[in-house]
Amino acid sequence: MNKALLSLAIGGFGIGLTEFVIMGILPDVANAFEISIPIAGHFISAYALGVVVGAPTLTGLCSKWQPQKVLLGLMVWFTIFNTLSAFATGYTSFLVLRFLSGLPHGAFFGIGAVVAGKLSKEGKQAQGIAIMFSGLTVANLLGVPLGTYLGKHLNWSISFLMVGIVGILTVLSIKFWMPLIKQTSESSFVRELRIFKKLELWMIIILTTIGTGGFFAWYSYIAPLITEVAGHPEQVVSYAMILAGLGMVIGNFIGAKLTEKVSPIYAVIVTLIFMVILLSLNTFVATNKVLVLVMTFLIGVVSFCISTPIQMTIINASKGSETLGSSLNQSAFNIGNASGAYFAGLPIAMGYGYTAADWVGAAMAGCGIFIALGIILLRRTKVKKHTKLSTSYS
User: Fold this and answer.
1) Tens digits of residue pLDDT in 170-185
2) Radius of gyration over every alpha carbon of the chain, rounded to an integer in angstroms
């Protein structure tokens, strides 16, 4: 593997670890700060808000800098505030540190995706981006279970010290392995903001928010689905999460391969179709102890098939401002995280049961399919207009 791509993967591992380990140790953090679990949930929201704010802001402000230096600076910031999180003394300090820790997340993945494409061989850009995202999937497979175990059996702060160590490794690997690459943009931040005038860009952002929100609708309530619907003991949830993580690792590279075979937007549609089918099917088999675990793995596979193609879709639609567009997609992922969990929680609160979350997820993924079809239609309309203009001028 290209060592420069490996440095991006290590960074992705650290980001995946800090984003998801908090969910496993949330009760322990709540007990440490003497607050309720719902209030402790604000820490998850604070991190997501940091991603949404930081992705376009930091990417835009650093667009004229050399990418290696930007990535290095982002990971130094990431390392400092995640390490400080381990020493938080109360609700307010931890809330602020979680927000600050989330700021570099979207910018790192956004800039990293463009850099990964440049570091890859011609025609292999999708695989380069998939290698970067592999760090995030491996974090779900190995890092999050380990961090959760240590956080529960030793101290919750150990989990964030782990993130700090991974951050240091990332800084060193970028410093020594990442080659000097031409600055990501020649234009000013103000000029880059012109991409917001593109209807296609907004459609892709909405597609990411709603389409991937379907996955988060399922993933947010996987624990009660395993225990209360399927009837497994609580310890099985950890194994189920590992199964989902393994599926994500495999799905990440399947998505890259699919993107090399067909257009990225068509790869997105194929993935969303399978997501609708699997989430719908899961509502019928979730009571079966064996099948619910099989579906956990399969949904994990499909959920990360979409990562690379949807990232390439927005990069291709953001010509001249690729890093800003790429980073905006990371904001959309996190909005999808929040919206998926919120909308799936509504029918559960009404008493329809935890399988209702899968129906909500299937509906959101289905909406994503129609948005993707709308993007294709918009592109064809543009081509027809361009053809007519070319004909009239000739």
Assistant:
1) 999 999 988 877 665 5
2) 21
Which pLDDT score, from 0 to 100, does residue 383 have?
A: 74
A 10 A CB-CB count for 190 gives 8
Alpha carbon 163 to chain centroid, angstroms: 17
d(CA 93, CA 164): 17
Q: How far is CA 229 from CA 223, 226, 233, 287, 356, in A?
A: 10, 6, 11, 5, 11
Q: What is the DSSP letter of 120?
A: S
Query: Among the residues of 121-198, which ranges form H helices?
Result: 125-138, 144-153, 156-177, 189-192
DSSP letter (8 states) at residue 287: T
User: Per the structure block, which two tokens stand in for 245?
Assistant: 């993580």
Task: Give per-residue burial for 227-265: e unless 16+ CB within 10 Å, then b.
Answer: bebbebeeebbbebbbbbbbbbbbbbbbbbebbbeeebb
Stretches where the chain sits below pLDDT 50 are none
pLDDT value, residue 386: 63
Distances (CA, A) of 147 to 32, 41, 84, 247: 17, 18, 17, 19
Distance CA 307, CA 252 (A): 7
Model pTM greater than 0.85? no
pLDDT score recorded for residue 191: 66
Q: Would you state the pLDDT for residue 348?
A: 83
> 314: closest CA among 327, 301, 323, 325?
325
Cα 178 to its chain centre, rounded Å, is 23
